[in-house]
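2024-03-11 09:14:02 DEBUG pipeline.ingest accepted 1 chain
2024-03-11 09:14:02 DEBUG pipeline.ingest length=339
2024-03-11 09:14:03 DEBUG pipeline.predict start
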Amino acid sequence: MSSTRHDPGPDQLKGILMVLVILGHTFWQGIGDSWTKWMIYGFHMPVFLFLSGYMISMARFGTRPWGDLLRHYWKRMLAAWLIVSVLWLALQKPEAFSDVQTFLEVLLLRPDFHLWYVPMLFLSVLLLRLLARPLNGSAAARAALGLAAVVGALLFQTPLKELVPQVVLDNVDARYAGYFVWILLGVAVRNGWFPRLGVWWLAPLVAVGLAARSWAYTSDAAGPWWSVVAFTVLSLGASLCVPALRDALRTPLPIVGEPLRTIGQHSLYVYLLHPFVTDALHTPEIGWLRSLVLGVAVTVAILVASYLVAGLLERAGGRLAGARWLGVRPGARRRQYRG
């Protein structure tokens, strides 16, 4: 979820995706109990993962020293994730601190609620860096990793889960292997390993995915495999739209463009912290309509608060950076004029 300062396109797109993520977390009905939540969950995390992969240039990535890579990701996301994870577990799962082994298992292998995204993304980054040389130099290596990613998705995100030993499913988050395919697809499109499709190909794919996903929700005849196919088609179409959406969003949107850019730029912190608010408003008994209204209101409130806080921190950070550049300690100039 790193930011791109010179190009507002990725930041605005991440801001839009954060709207969907937060809105999804304010629906306390199950995914199968709310059509809106069902449709949001049909594509939003694959698109977020695709965008994360799409930001990686393997030509530069493959030559990056390991120490520099680890320091970069520690500062950009791992430190914040670790602090929030400890706080979240202390409030939500205090039993995770019963011993060191349990804590590490819950922290790394079975992350609670939203905390899976960062370790899953970081493990994917490590794998891509480890395989960077063969991936950059061999189409066969890329095809082999792509096949492995597809197999992982089939085994961990479809009814084929029955083939996976239960001990694995009980002790490791299935999304670690099941969602890697979306990061890899983003990397493949960015680096020319997979073609960038035009809108005339993608629009029908998204339309079919939306219709199939909606039918899977409303029809009793839709079996589990139909839901898998609908999810895959919709997620694939929406993910492959990312390059075109990024290009379209290089011009800030009217009115909401600056808030979206700011939220997108700080999306890691918005993502990690917003569940503390949405979890406190756990009200499943109010019904779907009131839940939808409340969800929209809470989403808007969180986004506005995030924008205001991020703006204040950016201005404070800018003033501190300017003072250091001038060789002046914060507050030193004020003391000079006090005589």
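2024-03-11 09:14:41 DEBUG pipeline.report Confidence is low (pLDDT under 50) at residues 320-339.
2024-03-11 09:14:41 DEBUG pipeline.predict end
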